[in-house]
Amino acid sequence: MEIRPTTDKDLDVFVDTVHAAFGHFPETPVEGGGLWWSALETDRCLLALTADGRPVGTAATHSFELTLPGETLVPAPGVTAVGVLPSHRRQGVLTAMMRYQLAELRARGELLSVLLASEASIYGRFGYGPATYTAQLKVPRHEAALAAPRARELADGPTPGSGDGSRHGPASGSANGSVEVLRRSECGGILEEVYDRYRRAQPGALSRPHRWWALRAGQPPISREPRYIAVHRDADGLPDGYASYSIESGTLTVDETIATDDAVFTALARFALAHDLVSQVVFKHLQPEHPLRRQLADFRVGQVSGDMDWLWVRLLDVPRALTARGWFTDGELVLDVHDPFLGERDRYLLTVRNGKADCAPTDRKPDLSLDIRDLGSVYLGGTAPSTLVRAGHILAHHPDAATLADTLFRAERSPHCLHWF
Predict the structure, then answer these.
(1) pLDDT the model gives residue 357
(2) What does the record give as the active site (predicted)?
(3) pLDDT of 402
(4) Which of 42, 68, 205, 376 could bond 199 through an S-S bridge, CB–CB 3.0 to 4.6 Å?
């Protein structure tokens, strides 16, 4: 078997092979893109070929940036289009491609890679661990009242009419802003600009390169599927958030809500929840612990479902990855890291001072022993090390080790990724 990078001449073969691996047929291309694979970078795609030259497997990476805790941006190859023809599964093709790809990424100097897992049981053995999570919230329209924010009363004292469960603030927009409804085709560069501002401050978020927007390659609101866009503008009229939505059979579904702060998100949520002629509102891709459910006057009416992993992280250079992110508590931790797929085991002293980390090889006794996949899970702060200790995946060598690791690895806020690739 041969594994090699593709060229522009191989694009049709690559697309046909990955579709066949999943039992699908490629859609008919449209002028200017509009299909998920139109954003592929052919020099970052791989083909697995039999001895007689028949393509049987594919894998690729996109060029992204990942926002780390502390608002640090690092290159993050996004692994995608991984597939093996049904006739050649369980013959080592996938393992060979993953080994080739990881070696190639290391040779390029990448410190980590990321992916979205089609099946959760596949990628752990290659060193990837789930690092961000997503859920959806369903709210009956007739029970969608938002409670008065109690912190305001604590600061200013009771206000007339407070505490009665009624809506507060304007029907749309925040107190100093407004909401405008546009068709997707009318938005110009608004979505791209707002998303870019958002992702630079959100741990776990990925960039969306301009070519994705230009080619309309992806899911709504990037794709060509028709959507309405509720654009939030601040007091000066500048866009600072949006919600992409559609209505079908009485359900208003919000594909994506992007907001530069919590007040903007609340304004967009209030807009959706106040929409006439719908029976329920579904917010997709929320953080599992998003405060919106707590804002409802009746906590029970918000139904959470689809709680699942989203972005998976694989560290390729442990010292560089750990020193790249921001840290919020001083301390020291000795990590014994096992990478079974690459046959590596190393011990590192992680020292954090004033928000910066140093990570160096050490012979000191470990505080924690962990698989590289579990280090990927805790890296962004979305999975507590103590949770994986309790699950039996991380070994804590003394009673305080898990608590110390929880304190060190926490992020300034929960990591979240919305981008689909």
Answers:
(1) 98
(2) 123 (proton donor), 421 (proton acceptor)
(3) 98
(4) 205
Tell me which of 195, 245, 271, 421 is the catalytic residue.
Answer: 421
Is residue 160 located within the same domain as residue 263? yes
Provide the number of structural domains found in the chain: 3
Q: How far apart are CA 59 and CA 84, in angstroms?
A: 9
Kindly give, in sequence order, each residue whose CB lies less than 8 Å from that of residue 285, ignoring residues fewer than 6 positions away: 134, 136, 255, 256, 257, 310, 418
Q: Is 421 a catalytic residue?
A: yes
Same domain, 323 and 274: no
Residues 243 and 345 in one domain: no
Cβ neighbours, 10 Å, residue 366 = 20
Both tokens assigned to 155: 């600061």
**What's the whole-number average pLDDT of the chain?**
94
CATH of the domain at 155: 3.40.630.30
What is the rounded CA–CA span in Å between residue 182 and residue 281?
A: 19
**Cβ contacts of residue 392 below 8 Å, gap of 6+?**
none
The half-sphere exposure of 326 on its side-chain side, counting CA atoms within 13 A, is 16
> Which residue positions form the known binding site?
82-84, 90-95, 118-119
Q: Are residues 234 and 327 in the same domain?
A: no
Q: Which residue positions in the chain have pLDDT lower than 50?
A: 161-172
Same domain, 172 and 264: yes
Contacts of 242 (CB under 8 A, 6+ apart): 187, 190, 191, 194, 221, 229, 230, 231, 232, 257, 258, 268
pLDDT for residue 354: 95
In a domain, 120, yes or no: no
> In the prediction, which pLDDT does 157 show?
65
State residue 83's pLDDT score: 97
Binding residues for acetyl-CoA: 82-84, 90-95, 118-119
Query: What pLDDT is recorded for position 17?
Result: 97
Question: Is 124 within the bounds of a domain?
Answer: no
Residue-number span of the structural domain to which 381 is assigned: 318-409
299 domain-assigned: yes
* CATH number, position 382: 3.30.1050.10
Flag whether 128 is in a domain: no
pTM value is: 0.93
Residues 265, 371 within the same domain: no
Catalytic residue, candidates 14, 64, 123, 133: 123
